[in-house]
């Protein structure tokens, strides 16, 4: 599910249309004898657009809310064999689809957009957004849209209703993640990793069906494939997006090569392997997809796990809120705490919930919620900050200057960047010391700290911009054949991440489908790669220009100027062009410069450590 928007069909928008006002055109204008003094002037194009958008937006917001409420229920209460929720969600999403994709609305949107030069910029932006949304559910192919909605609801239920088993017992994904961070026995690690991949084959048929339905939906409005459709949200073609993510990947590649070499040797030592493998076995890494290796390093004096375990999950959410408040953001609405689903289900619950973190803007107004399974540990500490970033983004662009259709990020990557930035800030030593989470007087190793950060942020790039983006581009645009899905996944993992599966993984498996986004947030994972690049650009600016602190050792806490800087970016939603926003706020275009510079001091250390070691990528 789109982490921060509604799941596809919804995010995608909606349906049955309110009757459009009849457009006066040259031919339909009154022909009676002109009486210039009394005759009301025919409405201008801008006035017509205003009237249309008023009506459209009200209906859009109403249907969006219904769809979000239904999706919320479908994602927080998954009961095996019970189809009530699925039925209600499908119906709500169909109503949205029938409205947003109605032929009448599409016609009218195009007609108004044909008179762009007579409209205001914000009118044009809203009409374009509505037309973009329409392409996700055009009613000219109503049957395809309907089947797709049903298939997506079913895929979500399968994905989050799955019962993971390890050593004969049911386990949660939190359990598996914890085991992968802690287990030192390589044979056991392989079993855990394999247990985490058991869901893949159960999702294959549904995913292949969804690929066709997603492609067919957007093709009806002229997009060649679903990946291209999603990239167009940034004003880019598929090729332009792939060129951009490949460039980012290349810029981080020298650092990744050092990290990869370092990890092979260090992990071989840790697991008592005489032979250092050329490529990293996926089961050696402390994350199901090898997208974050930071748990490999424990920086003495900065390990948060014990203190977070002691303070507990609730404290983490409250602490993240306090951090945002300290920058000048409001307290969260009471309904956030009443309506969110923040913690794991109690043991023995008779239903399941979505196990991946997300944030929701239920009514495009003040009803904001988060769905998480927070436990007291570093990973959830960062994720909590990440999700509240979405929540504060929602609340900040919910203002009279931003109409409902533009209550979105400057682009999707900005939405992902805000909270991840706060997550990074909330782990730096001066911040932690200020809050008494670590002892300020304890000497800590700066190189190890930077190494741990690189194993989180830099290691993520080849996964997000390489493996995920290349696989989905090929899946949607090149129609990757059904008997090459897993082979392609592992070829990309080897090429970009230098990771191989512990044993041969044939086409009876479907390892990409174990990543939730492949199923319910399709063809958008480059958002996260771009979000990391943006977050380092923002962090660099905040540290150097606002705080006048070393970017490696900042403390944002309590700084209202930092809060104002972030709120200025959030406030216009998508009513302002994303490139302009970045240029105005940081003086830079989108670039990996800040990220590369941040990790530059680590290169000498890694080269030293890797001296005499064999490089394989
Ligand atoms: O999916 C997420 C967020 C969704 S709001 C928790 N993230 C990516 C992932 O988990 O794969 C955050 C960073 C990467
Ligand atoms: Zn997110």
TrEMBL record:
The active site is at residues 387, 517. Keywords: Disulfide bond, Glycoprotein, Metal-binding, Signal, Zinc. Zn(2+) 1 binds at residues 386, 390, 416. PROSITE patterns: PEPTIDASE_M2 (PS52011), PROKAR_LIPOPROTEIN (PS51257). Zn(2+) 2 binds at residues 386, 390, 416. Chloride binds at residue 234. The keyword Lipid metabolism does not apply. InterPro entries: Peptidase_M2 (IPR001548). Coiled coil: none annotated. Residues 1-21 form the signal peptide. This is Peptidyl-dipeptidase A.
């Amino acid at each position: 599910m789109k982490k921060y928007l509604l799941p596809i069909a919804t995010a995608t928008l909606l349906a049955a249309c309110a009757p459009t006002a009849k457009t006066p055109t040259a031919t339909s204008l009154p022909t009676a004898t002109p009486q210039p003094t009394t005759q009301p002037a025919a409405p201008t194009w801008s006035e017509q657009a205003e009237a249309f958008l008023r009506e459209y937006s009200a209906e859009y917001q109403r249907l969006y809310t219904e769809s979000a409420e239904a999706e919320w229920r479908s994602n927080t209460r998954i009961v095996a064999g019970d189809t009530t929720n699925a039925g209600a969600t499908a119906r709500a999403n169909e109503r949205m689809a029938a409205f947003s994709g109605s032929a009448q609305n599409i016609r009218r949107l195009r007609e108004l957009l044909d008179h762009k030069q007579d409209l205001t910029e914000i009118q044009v932006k809203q009409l374009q957004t509505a037309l973009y949304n329409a392409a996700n559910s055009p009613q000219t192919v109503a049957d395809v849209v309907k089947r797709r909605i049903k298939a997506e609801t079913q895929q979500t239920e399968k994905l989050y209703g799955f019962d993971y088993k390890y050593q004969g017992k049911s386990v949660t994904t939190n359990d598996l993640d914890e085991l992968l961070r802690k287990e030192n026995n390589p044979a056991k690690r392989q079993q855990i990793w394999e247990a985490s991949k058991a869901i893949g084959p159960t999702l294959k048929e549904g995913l292949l069906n969804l690929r066709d339905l997603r492609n067919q939906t957007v093709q009806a409005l002229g997009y060649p494939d679903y990946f291209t459709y999603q990239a167009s949200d940034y004003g880019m073609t598929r090729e332009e997006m792939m060129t951009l993510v490949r460039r980012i990947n290349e810029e981080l590649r020298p650092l990744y090569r050092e990290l990869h070499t370092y990890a092979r040797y260090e992990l071989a030592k840790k697991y008592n392997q005489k032979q250092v493998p050329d490529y990293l076995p996926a089961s050696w890494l402390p994350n199901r997809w090898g997208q974050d290796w930071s748990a490999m390093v424990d920086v003495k004096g900065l390990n948060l796990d014990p203190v977070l375990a002691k303070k507990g999950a609730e404290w983490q959410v409250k602490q993240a809120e306090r951090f945002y408040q300290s920058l000048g953001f409001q307290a969260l609405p009471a309904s956030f705490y009443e309506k969110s689903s923040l913690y794991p289900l109690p043991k023995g619950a008779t239903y399941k919930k979505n196990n991946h973190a997300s944030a929701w803007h239920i009514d495009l107004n003040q009803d904001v919620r988060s769905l998480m399974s927070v436990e007291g540990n570093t990973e959830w500490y960062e994720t909590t900050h990440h999700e509240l970033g979405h929540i504060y983004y929602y609340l900040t662009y919910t203002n009279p200057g931003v109409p409902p259709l533009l209550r979105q990020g400057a682009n999707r990557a900005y939405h992902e960047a805000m909270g991840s930035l706060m997550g990074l800030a909330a782990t730096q030593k001066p911040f932690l010391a200020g809050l008494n989470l670590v002892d300020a007087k304890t000497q800590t190793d700066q190189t190890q700290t930077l190494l741990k950060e690189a194993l989180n942020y830099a290691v993520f790039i080849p996964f997000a911009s390489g493996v995920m983006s290349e696989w989905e581009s090929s899946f949607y645009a090149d129609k990757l054949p059904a008997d090459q899905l897993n082979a392609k996944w592992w070829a990309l993992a080897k090429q970009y991440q230098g990771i191989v599966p512990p044993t041969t993984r044939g086409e009876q498996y479907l390892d990409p489908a174990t990543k939730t986004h492949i199923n319910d947030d399709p063809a958008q994972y480059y958002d996260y790669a771009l979000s990391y690049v943006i977050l380092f650009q923002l962090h660099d600016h905040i540290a150097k220009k606002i705080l006048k602190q070393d970017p490696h050792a900042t403390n944002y806490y309590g700084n209202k100027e930092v809060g104002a800087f972030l709120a200025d970016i959030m406030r216009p939603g998508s009513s302002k062009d994303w490139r302009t926003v970045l240029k105005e706020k940081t003086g830079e275009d989108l670039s990996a410069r800040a990220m590369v510079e941040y990790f530059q001091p680590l290169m000498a250390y890694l080269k030293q450590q890797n001296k005499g070691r064999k490089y394989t990528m």
